[in-house]
């Protein structure tokens, strides 16, 4: 366990066509505060079950450690797991004891206009009763409809009244964007290295969509940029630079695969691009170009289309296709680091590398400046970073390891025995 490392674990990496045999739909968790709590971005149907499916030898995520949830947009493949997730982590209400009138919320949900009405109404209409409380804060623009938080009522017809809260709902904030269209530092938390801010900004998709920026104000100054579905994220660029992000998570829903990589692939590059754009999505080179424009240090491709299942074995066709997708993004990114196509349960670890003179002097040869720093306490951390990138990045030349590899083998063995 590396003290103070940021850990981002992908719980679902499929586009809206999923879930599929190898991928659940969108959800990821960030371990950034350093006290064991987790922050979730999006919560697709089946997210609860992904916690049960994790390989405990590599991750040990607990759903009841999630204290904040950030929703990128209202599409079903990003929000349909919220209610079951709340049911799971907020526990059933006490039977014998009197029901508490109010408690601080155990989880805070942030998201675009509509998310409060959605969670509230489904909680009410499914007669969901919980022991712990919850709240929804909406990130609003001037043209959005506000959803008021009138006190809970046991009257039967209040179930259908949008403005009346659920029994264990706490009134949330209506957070208006500033004139530049951003929600800056709309939540602030204390982490190991000081204050941790979260910003949000709009990105282009078929319907209103947000990207989130989680950043340290001091210390290592790490920054995570996690975008929702998009065909053009340029509007959020001002939040993504100065400093550049340690990690960019960008969707790559579709991709053109040449025949020499997959002989079943018949679509032209133009047809693939047209389809992606018409649906508000990106191809790998668009993710790479965006990473280049903001100087991202790491790039993970997410929200992968159903045509591209996660690899099971190091040398199967699936692996070749995912490597091709990574190659296209890496070329557009123009980085020495390889872009990584996410798979379920993949974990990216970002060590607390403090700013060094080497980072300011980008022209200098990295190896040379590492020599100069030999003996400094930073060496251990730099080495740790290399190791984690190898572990979780897989081998750039040989393809990467799929988290369910062991399970996949087991299936095959069972079939053989039958
Ligand atoms: Zn989606
Ligand atoms: Zn979408």
How would you portray this structure in words?
- InterPro entries: RibonucZ/Hydroxyglut_hydro.
- It holds the Pfam family Anti-Pycsar_Apyc1.
- It comes from Lyophyllum shimeji (Hon-shimeji).
- This protein is α/β, with parallel strands linked by helices and 418 residues long.
- The chain has one domain: Metallo-beta-lactamase, Chain A.
- Helix content is 27%, strand content 21%.
- It has 12 helices and 16 strands.
- Strands 1, 2, 3, 4, 5, 6, 7, 8 and 16 form a 9-stranded mixed sheet that branches. Strands 9-10-11-12-13-14-15 form a 7-stranded mixed sheet, covered by helices on one side.
- Helix 5 links the parallel strand 12 and strand 13.
- Helix 7 runs parallel beside helix 8.
- The two termini are 41 Å apart.
- The C terminus is likely disordered.
- The site of one zinc ion has 4 residues, from loops.
- One zinc ion binds next to helix 2.
